[in-house]
Recover the amino acids of this structure.
C-alpha cells in the first residue's frame, strides 16, 4: 500500500494536465488542483497498512451483503477518486464474470489487472462517455470517426487508440484510466469495441480540467465545496498505445455493452448511497432553517419537510433492498439490479423537488446572507448578528452560517454540479428506466392482475 506522501510523489511522472488555458507541470503544489491531491493523499494515510500484502478496504471486493453494506460508510467518508476507484474495480470484476464464458482470455487479463491494481494501491477513474458528435448517428456514421473512442492501429504487441472521454472526475489525480465502450456496438463497429487500462502519463494522453472549487479568497462561506471539490477532466486520447496485457476487450461488439452495464450497476449503487446520505442532510437543513426562521410549526412548512423525509426514507429503503437482495458469486457480492436502478431513478428524478422545498423553506437569504468576514468586522458584525437573528434563542451568526451551507450545497457552483450529476451519473434517467424494466418481473405482475380479474393466462394471449 502507498502512503499519502508516496502517492503525491507518484504524480510526478510528466502527465499532461491543463487548467484554465495553462499546462500544470506541478499538480501537487497547484493552488486549486493541489487541494484535490492533498485530499486524496489524506485518504491514503487514513487506510494505510504496513502489513505485507495488505489491500486497502476501498479496493477489496465485498463477499457478502454485510461486507457490501459495511463498505458504504467508508466510501462516504472518502474522497471521490477513492470512490470511483472502487467502482472501477467492481466494474471490471463484474464484466469479467459476465464475459468469462465467451472471452476467457480477456476475463483473465481483467482479473490480473485488478489484482495488480490492488497490490500497487493505485487510483483508477472511469472513462466511458465519448464526445459522441451527432447523437442521432451511430459511431461508424459520424462525420468525424473519432467522435467515439476507437482503435486506429493494431500491432502484434497492442493497439493505438484515439478519441476523447468526457466528465472524468479526478482524471489528473489518478494513475490509470479505465477506458470502456460507452454503449452497445454493432457489426461493423469493431474498432469502437475497445476496453483497456491506460496510464495517465501515457504519451498522447491530455487532460483539460475544470472545477467547482470556490474562487473566493475566504472559503469559510463555502463550508461544503471547499472541503470536497475535485477536478473534472476532459480526457483526450491522441494516438495512445495500449499493450496487450492492458486490453480487456478488442473488437468483440457483442460484449461491448457488458462493460457499460457493469459500470452502470456500481455507479448507480454509489449514487444511491450518496443520495441516501444527502436526503437526510436536506431534511436536517430544512428542519434547522425552519426552526431558525421561526416557522417550524407552520402547516405548509411541516408538509414540505414531511415530503422530504419520506423521499429520504424511500431512497434509504431502496439502498437497503439492493444490498439485502445482493447476488453472491465466487467473484464477490453484487447488488440487486432492480432495486439499485429503481432507487437511483427515484432519487435523481425527485432531487430538484426536494431542493425546491428547501429553498422555499429557507428564503432568499441563502443567496444574500453576509459572509463570515462581515461577521468579524467590528462595524458590520454586530449589525449582521442583530438583523440575522430571529429571537433570543437564535443567534444571527448561526443563522447566517446555515444559509451559507445551504447555498453552497444546493445553489452555487457545487449545487449546480450536484443537480446535473445526480441525473447524469450512471447513464441518466432513461438508462435507469430501461434496466429497471429489464429486471422487473412484469410477467409476474400480469399474472397477479389476471388472478384478480378472474382471467387465465390463455385469455391474455
Amino acid at each position: 500500500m502507498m502512503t499519502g506522501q508516496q502517492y503525491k510523489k507518484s504524480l510526478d511522472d510528466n502527465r499532461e494536465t491543463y487548467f484554465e488555458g495553462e499546462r500544470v507541470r506541478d499538480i501537487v503544489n497547484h493552488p486549486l488542483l493541489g487541494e484535490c491531491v492533498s485530499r486524496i493523499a489524506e485518504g491514503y494515510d487514513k487506510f494505510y497498512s504496513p502489513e505485507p500484502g495488505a489491500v486497502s478496504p476501498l479496493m477489496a471486493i465485498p463477499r457478502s451483503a454485510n461486507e457490501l453494506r459495511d463498505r458504504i460508510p467508508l466510501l462516504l467518508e472518502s474522497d471521490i477518486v477513492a470512490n470511483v476507484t472502487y467502482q472501477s474495480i467492481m466494474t471490471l470484476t463484474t464484466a469479467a464474470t459476465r464475459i468469462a464464458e465467451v472471452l476467457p482470455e480477456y476475463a483473465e487479463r481483467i482479473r490480473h489487472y485488478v489484482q495488480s491494481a490492488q497490490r500497487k494501491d493505485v487510483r483508477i477513474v472511469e472513462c466511458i462517455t465519448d464526445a459522441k458528435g451527432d447523437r442521432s448517428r451511430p459511431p461508424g456514421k459520424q462525420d468525424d470517426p473519432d467522435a467515439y473512442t476507437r482503435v486506429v492501429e493494431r500491432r502484434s504487441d497492442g493497439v493505438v487508440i484515439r478519441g476523447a472521454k468526457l466528465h472524468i472526475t479526478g482524471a489528473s489525480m489518478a494513475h490509470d484510466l479505465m477506458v470502456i465502450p460507452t454503449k452497445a456496438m454493432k457489426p461493423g463497429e469493431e474498432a469502437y469495441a475497445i476496453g483497456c487500462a491506460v496510464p495517465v502519463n501515457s504519451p498522447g494522453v491530455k487532460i483539460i480540467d475544470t472545477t467547482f472549487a470556490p474562487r473566493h479568497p475566504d472559503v469559510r462561506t463555502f463550508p461544503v465545496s471547499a472541503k470536497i471539490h475535485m477536478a473534472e477532466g476532459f480526457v483526450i486520447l491522441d494516438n495512445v498505445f495500449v499493450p496487450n496485457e492492458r486490453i480487456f476487450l478488442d473488437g468483440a461488439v457483442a460484449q461491448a455493452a457488458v462493460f457499460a452495464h457493469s459500470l452502470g450497476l456500481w455507479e448507480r449503487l454509489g449514487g444511491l448511497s450518496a443520495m441516501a446520505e444527502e436526503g437526510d442532510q436536506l431534511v436536517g437543513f430544512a428542519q434547522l432553517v425552519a426552526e431558525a426562521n421561526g416557522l417550524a410549526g407552520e402547516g405548509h412548512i411541516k408538509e414540505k419537510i414531511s415530503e422530504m423525509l419520506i423521499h429520504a426514507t424511500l431512497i434509504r429503503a431502496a439502498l437497503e433492498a439492493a444490498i439485502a437482495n445482493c447476488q453472491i458469486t465466487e467473484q464477490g457480492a453484487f447488488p440487486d439490479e432492480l432495486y439499485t436502478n429503481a432507487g437511483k431513478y427515484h432519487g435523481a428524478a425527485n432531487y430538484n423537488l426536494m431542493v425546491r422545498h428547501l429553498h422555499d423553506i429557507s428564503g432568499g437569504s441563502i443567496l444574500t446572507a453576509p459572509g463570515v468576514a462581515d461577521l468579524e468586522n467590528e462595524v458590520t458584525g454586530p449589525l449582521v448578528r442583530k438583523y440575522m437573528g430571529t429571537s433570543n434563542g437564535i443567534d444571527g451568526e448561526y443563522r447566517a452560517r446555515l444559509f451559507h451551507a445551504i447555498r453552497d450545497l444546493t445553489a452555487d457552483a457545487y449545487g449546480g454540479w450536484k443537480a446535473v450529476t445526480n441525473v447524469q451519473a450512471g447513464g441518466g434517467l432513461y438508462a435507469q428506466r430501461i434496466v429497471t424494466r429489464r429486471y422487473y418481473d412484469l410477467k409476474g405482475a400480469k399474472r397477479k392482475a389476471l388472478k384478480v380479474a378472474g382471467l387465465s393466462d390463455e385469455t391474455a394471449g
In short: Residues 166 and 234 are 5 Å apart (CA to CA). The chain has a mean pLDDT of 95. Residues 256-292 form the longest helix (37 residues).
